[in-house]
Every structure is written in C-alpha cells, then in structure tokens.
Hints:
By secondary structure, the chain is an alpha/beta fold. Helix content is about 45%, strand content about 20%.
Amino acid sequence: MRHCGSGGRKFGQAFANQIRRRLPRVGDKWHLDEVVIKINGVTHWLLRAVDQAGMVLDVLLQSRRDKQAAKRLLTKLLKRQMRPPRVMITDKLASYGAAKKDVMPSVEHRQHKGLNNRAENSHQPTRRRERQMKRFKSAVQAQRFLSAHDGINNLFHLRRKDVTASEYRAARARAFSVWFEVSGLAEPA
C-alpha cells in the first residue's frame, strides 16, 4: 500500500471507501455488463454494475462468465447497497437472469442490447487505465486496483450536460475539496 501526502495516509480501498461515503446516494436502476480482460494470457471477465447516472456501483473480476459469477456480483451489490434496485438492465447474457431469480426474484429485469449502453461506456476509463499501466499483472492486483479506481473516479465523474459553467466549476471545486480532505493533502493556494 502506498502512502500519500505528509499525513502518511494510505492510498487504496480504504481511501476509496471514504470518498464513496461522501457521494450522493445511488439510483434505483442498475445496469450490469461484462468485459473480457486478458491477464498473463488468461481470459478473465470484469463484471461491472452502474446506476442510471453512470456511477460505478461495484466491479468483480471472475475467471468465468456464468450464473455463479453473476450471483456473486449481485450478492456483493446487495450487501454494499443494502437495498435491491427497482430495475435491473442487462445485455442478453442468460446467466444474469438465472442469478437474479435466485438472489432477488421480485426485481424487474430488462434484457436489451441498446438499453445497456451506460454500462458499456463505463468500461472506457478502465481500458484507458489498463493501457497506461501496460496491462494488469495479476487478477488480485486488477481487482484491488479497479475497486479503488472506480470509487475515486466516481468523485470526479461530473455530468456536463444541462449544467452551466459556473455550476460545473462549483461541482468540480467540491470534488477537489473532498479529495484534499480525504487524502490529507494540502489544497493548492
């Protein structure tokens, strides 16, 4: 674990959890999707859940893309969010529907390729970061990094649409003040 700033605070999952607690409450629509990631020549699946505003709820790296992996993601989401969604939107992968029947049968499930674009677009920062890091070295490192990265990325994920420039600057300033408060770094003058 790397230390940052003069306060000697740790940077990692605990850091991301502090930021997550300060973010607004997540929406009641969950978009679930998966993307393939190669780690040392072995195929892994990165399962990701996003709410309707584009905030990443959770990520899970699995070696398989089956009912058990989808069930693991859904139980992890329910444990973290402490309430089920109103609607769950996925692509046509059947394992999401099978896992949903076991974990949360009362939730409405929509399977449609076009409705899931929000989750598809949430993979882009991961791909950019993966390229910068010259690929992930192990599955454990990838899971640990992505869990922390997405939590921190949510803090700076500001919606530009229908926001005036002054509102955008104010939201950006709030995000940086939370960042400096949590990280223990001194704000620049």
